[in-house]
Amino acid sequence: MFLLGDEAREEAKRSIKGLAAHAKSADEHHHEALYLVLNTKIHLVKENDQTPRIIPLTHKLHDIDERRMCLITNDPVNFYKDELQKKDLPTEDLFRQIISFTKAKLFGHSKKALIRLFKENDLILADARIHKKLPDVLGPQFYARNKKVPFVVQMAKPEPGLRTHGKREQRVDPKYVRSQVKAITGNTYYIPPAGGFCIHIVVGFTDWKTLEILRNINDVILYLVDEKYKPVGGLLGRVSNLHSVLLRTSDSIAMPVLKKKADEAEEDDSGSEFDFE
C-alpha cells in the first residue's frame, strides 16, 4: 500500500519517469540523486540540534565501501585508531582518516585545513561524546544548509549502569562501529529544520527502477508518520500534515507526487536548509 494514496502513486510514477528522461538527455549513463521534497503544515521540531536522523530504506543508496569517510574521535586518538585499524577487523580499512577532537579544533583555525577536510571526504562521522561540540569547531562550511553535517557514531554499545569511577571511558567495538556506518551509508537521512516547513530527502537515483524508488518513498513517509519511530521519527504524526510532496534532481524543476489543494496557499520551499551543491 502506497501511504500517500493511489493517485499520488501514479503521479509519482510519471514524475520519476520524467526526471529519468531529463537526466538521460544530459548523460546517457545518468545516476542522479532523486530528492523527495516534503512541504509540511507543521513544524517538526522547535530547535535544530544538527543531528541527522537515519531513515531505513528497503533499497540501499550506497555500499559501505563506496564512501570516503573521516572519523573524529574523542581523545586520545591513538587508542581508537589502534583498536579500529587492527588487521582483519571489520573497520581495518573503513575510514579514510581518523582524527582526534583536539586535531579537529586545530583545523578550525585553518581555512585551508577545513576546506581539505570538506573536499576529501564524502562523510564526516563523529564520536557521540564530542558531536555536539563540532558546530563551533567546523563552522558554517559544514553546517550551513546541511552541506556536510557530521553523523553520530557510538564507539561501543552503551551499557546502562556502567561505572567509570571518574575515568574517561575507553571502549571500542569495531563490529558495532561498522554496523552503524553501514546504516549511515546505505540509508537516507534528514535534519528537521527548526521553524521550517520544507525538507529534502534522497530516495534513490534516476537510473533505478520506478518500483524501487516508490518503495523508498513509502519508507520515508512511514518513518515520518509512524509513532514506533519516535522520538527521532514519527514527527509528522499523520499524512494529512503534509502540504505537498514533490520529486526533483539537483538541476531539475520539482515534479509532483502529492499535489497541493486548490484552495491552499502556495508553499515556498526556499526556506529549506538543504543545499544541492
Automatic annotation (TrEMBL):
CDD domains associated with the record: Ribosomal_L1
This protein's name: Ribosomal protein L1
Pfam families noted in UniProt: Ribosomal_L1
InterPro entries for the chain: Ribosomal_uL1-like, Ribosomal_uL1/biogenesis, Ribosomal_uL1_3-a/b-sand
Gene3D superfamilies: 3.40.50.790
